[in-house]
Amino acid sequence: MGYSRAQKSYPRKSVEGARVSNRQVAVDAWESLFRAQVAVMRSLAANFPSREISLNEYDVLFNLSRQPDRRIRLRDLNQHVLLTQPSVSRLVDRLVSRGYVEKETDPADGRGAIIGLTDAGYALFRRVALLHMVSITDRIGEALSDEELKQLTDLCDRLRTGSR
Q1: In 20-141, which residue ranges form alpha helices assigned H by DSSP?
Q2: Rounded to the nearest 5°, which phi and psi values hold at 118?
């Protein structure tokens, strides 16, 4: 963002020996990916199909639903959600006060907390997830074919894990 197209092109080593011959190509790809992610997330947040919970609250419920016994240490939850740690702690406390999440001291480490999805929180998550899937499909399914969506998934997974 703000890079000049006149920059020199230097071969750079990439994942597992692949070569990036032009830094600008990599920077342009990053900027495009970043701007697409921001645009899609803003659109999904603006059109989130629930008045009961926000997209960020849904993100916490979603990540809890994917854990064994729907429970996880708070500090580990921070690795999965899109928010910063202080924001997650406050958001979890709000979800606890509404009965969607429970929070208890970690018996293995009294300084930590275990967060669990309640039955009410899981029921809400499932109701909203069905509507949210429609929103996601409408937002990205209109722009990309099934084959392109599979390719996008593969590319994003490779970027996230750093593997080829």
Answers
A1: 23-46, 55-65, 74-77, 85-97, 119-141
A2: -80, 170
